[in-house]
Amino acid sequence: MALVRVYCGLSSTQPSGSAAVAGNAPGEAWLTVAVVDDSGRLLDVVDVKDDPTGYAELGAVLAERSGGSGDVAVAADTDEHQVIMLLAAAGRPLAIAEEESLDDYADRFGDDDSPDELEAPPAERRAIGLARGLQAGALAAAVQAAPRELMALKPVLAAHAAVANGRQSAAVALREVLRELYPAALRAYPDPCESVPLAVLDALPEPGLLSSAAATRGRDAAGDGGADRRAGGRSRPDRRGDHRAARRDRRDPPPDRNRQDAHHRGGGDDPAERRGGNAPATRRSARWSPC
To answer: Cα dihedral sign for 154, 156, 162, 164?
Structure first.
C-alpha cells in the first residue's frame, strides 16, 4: 500500500445541516477538518465533535487519506481542543496558528477558481487555509508535549492508531480483490470494510452464489407449479366414462326381483311369464334399431 503525503487543518465551527438536527446538544463543540495532498488539492472536508469520538473519526479519515501513514501533520487554530490534546498525546506533529492569522491563511491559500471554496463557511475556509499553509511551508509542525493528565493514554492511542492503519490496509486489499472478482459489490459499497458490506460479503462471498440461488428458487417454483398441474389433471373427473356408464344403464335396466323370485318358485313354465320375460328384449331391440 503506497503512502500519500497529506496535510490536515482544524478549525472551530458550529454544526450545520444533518449534524445540527441529529439531536446534538447546543453547547457541544465541533471542528471542521480539511485534508489536502502534497500538491494542495483538497481531498476531504468533514465535521467532527471535539471529543474522543471525534478524535477516532479524525484518525480514520487521516488513515484513509494517507494510506496508513502515522506522521500526518495537523495545523489547528488553538491548542485547547480535546482533539488537539489527544493528537499531542499520540505524538502527532502539530502546528498552532495565531488567531489573527487565520483569515489571512484562508485568503492566501484559498482557491479563487473554486466556487465551492469561495462560497464555503468561514470555518471551512480557515481549515483549508491551515492545511495548505502546512503544505506550502508557511506553518511548521512539530511533536509537542502532551498534557500530564493524558500521558496514561499513550498506549491506548497507539493501539487505536494501529487498528485504524490495519483497517485501512485490509480495506485496500479487499478493494483490490473486489475490483478483480466482484466489481458489483465495490460499486454498491465504496468502503467494503463497513459492517453492512462485510455482512453481505460474508453471506455471498462469490458473485455466482447470488445467481445460482435465484436459479434454484426458480427451479423449485417451476417444480411446484408442475406438480400442482399434474395433481389437478389427475383429480379431474372422466366425463366420458360417466356418459358411457349412463348409456349402459339405459340399455340394461336392472332386473325385476319379483319376477326372478316367481321364476325360482316354479312359475317360470308359464308362457305368459316367458313372453313377459322376453318383452324387454323385444322393446330394447326395437328402440335401438338403426332403422
So the answer is: negative
Question: What CATH number should be reported for the domain holding residue 167?
Answer: 3.30.420
Task: Kindly compute the dihedral angle of the four CA atoms of residues 26, 44, 126, 23, in this order, to the nearest 10 degrees.
Answer: 0
- Residue 1 placed within a domain: no
Q: Does residue 189 lie within any of the structural domains?
A: no
Domain that includes residue 49, residue range:
6-181
pTM of the model: 0.61
Give the count of beta carbons closer than 10 Å to the beta carbon of residue 271.
7
Residue 189: what residue type? Answer: Y
Nearest to 194 by CA among 207, 175, 213, 214: 175
CB 74 within 8 A of CB 8: yes
Which neighbouring-strand residues pair with 95?
75
SS3 content of the chain, % helix, strand, coil (to 5): 60, 10, 30
CA angle (189 as vertex; 187, 193 as ends), nearest 5: 135
DSSP for residue 34: E
For the chain, what is the domain count? 1
Q: pLDDT of 40-90, one tens digit each?
A: 999 999 999 999 999 999 998 998 888 776 688 999 999 899 999 999 999
Residue 249: inside a domain: no
Q: Give the CA angle between residues 136, 109, 41 to the nearest 5°.
A: 70
| Of the candidates 127, 141, 118, 133, the residue with the CA atom closest to the CA atom of residue 71 | 141
Name, in order, each residue with C-beta under 8 angstroms of 191's C-beta and a sequence gap of 6 or more: 171, 197
Q: Is 61 helix (H, G, I), strand (E, B) or coil?
A: helix
From CA 280, how far away is CA 284, in angstroms rounded?
A: 6
How many Å is the maximal CA-CA distance in the chain?
144
Instruction: Report which of 274, 246, 247, 254 is spatially closest to residue 262, judged by C-alpha positions.
Output: 274
Let me know if residue 170 belongs to a domain. Answer: yes
